[in-house]
Specification:
This protein is of the alpha/beta class. The protein has 10 helices and 11 strands. It binds guanine (GUN).
Length: about 290
């Protein structure tokens, strides 16, 4: 069994980016700038955004964090997005999700200039990815593709099962795994809450990407010997032994599944650090060789 170390891989990639940014600034060019909009004080979102800002520093980027309270109006957010779209010193920006219920998430995403949409959530970027045109690809699936590539996981002709159909992970993951490229060229099955016999489908999988948000969902009896297991789950579960009172738990019963498979990602330290890393890669591209310019 090989542990896919996302933390180490992300550190290597961030170092590669930092070297490139140092070369850019030595030539007198401006460093990439990422802005993040954070609404409210949700613990998970606070942590994610803080980690994104920290990663910007590690890569030599500048960054700005724009905060709003939970009761912010959609109009105010749309105004801020317009301002960021028009600010030439901002290469890319994100609006951390989820947003409060009174805000229409799709209206917000559609207001972002696709050329600055480093999350890859805008319908134009989703569409471009689906037909193989250059654009920005959603960070978590892009990070998983980097891990498969860097660990030399054979994907061509393999049966990949994606558990979950979210716009952010499941759907783009399906697109990337089936695309004609390396990694890619998989035969893909997508399972969701209305899929019967998920266990049987998983038993036939060479690669499982678990993105359901159900801790420990993938058990040993669902895994074919020698399979590759990618765990996207990051649910906070109570843990009285921790100072915080919680720990992160993935969608895979890691202890038992690890014994059976060829490659597996841990939680934490697997996919999570790669998500942030992909955001940094997208931001570098937005600055350096923006696919829209
Ligand atoms: N919420 C959970 N994951 C993400 C992400 O990748 N980007 C944004 N903007 N919000 C998220």
């Amino acid at each position: 069994m090989t542990l896919i170390d996302g933390k180490k891989t992300a550190a290597e990639i961030k170092q590669e980016i930092a070297t490139e940014v140092a070369e850019m600034t030595a030539r007198g060019e401006r460093a990439p700038h990422l802005a993040a909009i954070l609404v409210g004080h949700d613990g998970g979102s606070e942590t994610y955004v803080a980690n994104k800002v920290k990663a910007c520093g590690e890569c030599g980027f500048t960054s700005s964090l724009i905060r709003f309270e939970d009761d912010v109006t959609e109009e105010t957010l749309l105004k801020e997005i317009k301002r960021l779209n028009e600010d030439d010193t901002v290469d890319g920006f994100i609006v951390q999700l989820p947003l409060p219920r009174h805000i229409n998430e799709q209206n917000i995403i559609r207001a972002i200039d696709p050329a600055k949409d480093v999350d890859g959530f805008h319908p134009i970027n989703v569409g471009r990815m689906s037909i193989g045109l250059p654009g920005f690809v959603s960070a978590t699936p892009a990070g998983i593709m980097q891990l498969l590539k860097r660990y030399g996981v054979e994907t061509k002709g393999k049966h990949a099962v994606v558990l979950g159909r979210s716009n952010i992970v499941g759907k783009p993951m399906v697109t990337l795994l089936m695309q004609k490229s390396n990694p890619g060229n998989c035969t893909v099955t997508v399972c969701h809450s209305a899929t019967p016999n998920i266990k049987d489908i998983c038993r036939n999988a060479d690669i499982i990407v678990a993105a359901l948000g159900q801790p420990g969902f993938v058990t040993e009896d669902m895994v074919k010997p020698g399979a590759t297991i990618i765990d996207v789950g990051t649910t906070r579960v109570a843990d009285a032994t921790r100072k915080s009172g919680w720990r992160l738990r993935g969608d895979v019963d890691f202890e038992n599944v690890a014994k059976k498979c060829e490659f597996i990602t841990p939680v934490p330290g697997g996919v999570g650090p790669m998500t942030i890393c992909s955001l940094m890669i997208n931001t570098l591209h937005a600055r350096k060789d923006n696919p829209y310019k």
